[in-house]
Amino acid sequence: MSANHASLSSSIRQDPWWARAIMILLAIGFLTWLVLIPVVFVFVSAWSNGASSYVASLLEDEETRSSILLTLMVAPVAVVLNVLFGLAAAWAIARFRFRGRAIVIAMIDLPFAVSPVVAGLSLLLIFGQNGFLGPWLHERGWQVVFAFPGILLATCFVTLPFVARELIPLMESIGDEEELAAVSLGASPFQMFWRVTVPNIKWGILYGAILCNARAMGEFGAVSVVSGRIPGETETMPLRVERLFQDYDSPGSFAVASVLTLLALVTLGIKIALERQTRADLARHQRMADQGESA
Amino acid sequence: MLRRARTALPGFRLSLGVTIFYLAVLVLIPLGACIIKAASLPFDRFWAAVSSDRAQAAYIFTLVSSFVAAIASTLIGSLIAWVLVRYEFPLKRVFDSIVDIPFALPTAVAGLVYSSLYAENGWLGQFLVPLGIKAAYTRLAVVLVLTFIGFPFVVRAIQPVLEDLDKDMEEAAFMLGANRWQIAFRVLLPSLLPAMMTGFALAFARGLGEYGSVVFVSGNMPFKTEIAPVLIVSRLESFEYAEATAIAVVLLSISMSMLVLINLLERWSSRHVG
Q1: Which listed residue, of A37, A292, B109, B253, carries a Cα 20 to 30 Å from B21's Cα?
Q2: Which residue of A has its CA nearest to B216?
Q3: Does the CB of B174 have a partner CB in chain A at under 8 Å?
Q4: Using one digit for the tens of pLDDT, what is the confidence trace for B77-116?
Q5: Is A208 near chain B, with CB under 8 Å?
Q6: What's the pTM?
Q7: How many contacts, defined by CB atoms under 8 Å, are there between A and B?
Q8: Which sequence spans correspond to the domains of chain A?
Q9: ipTM (interface pTM)
């Protein structure tokens, strides 16, 4: 009976071979057309003039070099700020019930929905020369817009949800029993946080940080509005790609683009490894829980 | 003061304080400033900026190209999700990871590549342009690059629902004499519809705000291939802050309504699964 059942189930759920073949080929075809060809094209175009010219267009062009440095400075700071925010937001939202909680959650999602250009414009309206805080900042000689702080604010805005959205469901699914136990056994808040909370969510933090970093390095619209796009000063790598493209320096543009693409691929590699790690962790947790029950 | 339910855990005030401060500085105050600035404009000036012919053309082009791209993303994304969940084939896991590339790839890179691939002498353009298909600096180019950005949202929205689908339902339908098409349209499609619509809405919302990739591929011709975010930037570059802000508020209210819609859809979708 059960064998019959299995064959029945597989015969309904298994489509005829030709239908499977057509659909698999179509799916692979779409992925190749939309994603694979473009990614291969980046590297082929970047290396089309040989390796030495590739290295030269990355390292010998002073403005390209400074754009790489700027991106390498902005992204880590944005990641650190968003990790701190993500930890605070996840602790407040996953561990407490309070009035206005749903509104705070919706606010965290907002940067995903708002156009980066609108985000950049909004920051200009606050911190720009004619902005609400502009004159006050100008008096004190603090340059926010068209400078590093503005680029950082814009990057933080667009990457704000990544860590928080990763940690909130994770901490909710872990539950607060271990933390309550730690507190009732006399742990200080600091001990509880470092010995119980952080070890439980460390892979989640890393996962969120990796996604946040990828987006931070690649952000274009918001940064383009607030940075003023001054070559050699406030141009990040994605902005440099556009500048070189507009100047008809196609190999240079693709060289910078290839570095960004490589970063994206490395990000995905780490992401896959982390997902495997969390799955293994969860399985071990489950096994330990099962053993505890049977003992 | 926000009131909370009692628990022994520490750090409520600190963590909520940090959260609200960060949200206020980065999100609430700037977006609020945008709305206040637009509201402080004399109404006829606001209306003139928002409803100029060029702005109207930009809204319509933004909405139509995002909508068409979201439809294409839903079709392509559903097919890919189906194949990845239901069938076995070589390199399946590699193709599954490839779906995430558009999430991770900077939009400027996507724009650069798409504009070069479909140019007259590009890899794909050299075959397509003689056939009359011009996918660089046209409306088609915008739809194409928005589809690239949108389809992973659909795949990732449908995949978990498809994996959790109760096979008993399909078997019951088969036992009751349903044929393959009836199972597909009467059993599978209704269960997948909420997830498909969520994916569609996510792709559509992303397309409405997209700037980095479109600015490369569209040619940015006013009245033809200019999207609303590009119009905002072009107003900013000519120092027309008030006009830029007025258009930004229109775009912002569309994004906010999409966010509400997506939340409703996700709630509906999770009710269907659970």
Answers
A1: B253
A2: A242
A3: yes
A4: 999 999 999 999 999 999 999 999 999 999 999 999 999 9
A5: no
A6: 0.91
A7: 288
A8: 1-46, 51-294
A9: 0.90
